[in-house]
Amino acid sequence: MQNNSCGTSRIAGCQFTLLPMSDKFVDIIMGALDEVDTSNIWKKTDDVSTCVRGKMEHVFDVTQALFLHAANTGEHVAMSGTFSIGCPGDTEADAYMDGAETPLNEATSKQISQQAGCKFSLYPMGREDYMDTIYEQIDLSKHRNVEVSASHYATRLDGDVKAIFEALHQSFDSVQEKVSHVTMTFTISANSPSNKT
Ligand SMILES: Cc1ncc(C[n+]2csc(CCO)c2C)c(N)n1
């Protein structure tokens, strides 16, 4: 079996798209990508999405900060993406696996208070007992300062953006401790003019 470990931590990543429902979408996307400190992760942006790769805590810190910056414009903004860890072959960004654990955007993100709704789905790969792992995480997310509700093919989390990302991070982290290859999809939306139903 291939060894996907780099030192003590494994490379994680997230491929995501920011979707500002605004004619200022270019400024909102590029402004967020400019303002957020991405110096401790590998990053590539194209016409469809942005991919960040590196230590798990930095991947979550940067993804959360980008959404917060975009939503802080007051516009209706959504973000959709996939987190992944243990993907066979994902060993390229070794340079980004060294260095400090402290997330670089924590202080700035702390200053932004923003409510949002999110739907997420966990995919523990290659495991017959995958449903047990998923149900365990749904139960745990009920203790994480977010409102949790069932949704088809996903679990819905409502609350402060930082509490939502913390719940996503904790779910993903505890599954990857037991399962080598894990992916997690999510869509988060803030400032929507629609009512939650
Ligand atoms: C996070 C993120 N990265 C890339 C895109 C793709 N994209 C769509 S419009 C635009 C700005 C002008 O080119 C870019 C980069 C996205 N939506 N969100």
TrEMBL record:
A Pfam family: Ykof
Annotated ranges, domain Thiamin/hydroxymethyl pyrimidine-binding YkoF putative: 11-90, 115-195
Full protein name: YkoF family thiamine/hydroxymethylpyrimidine-binding protein
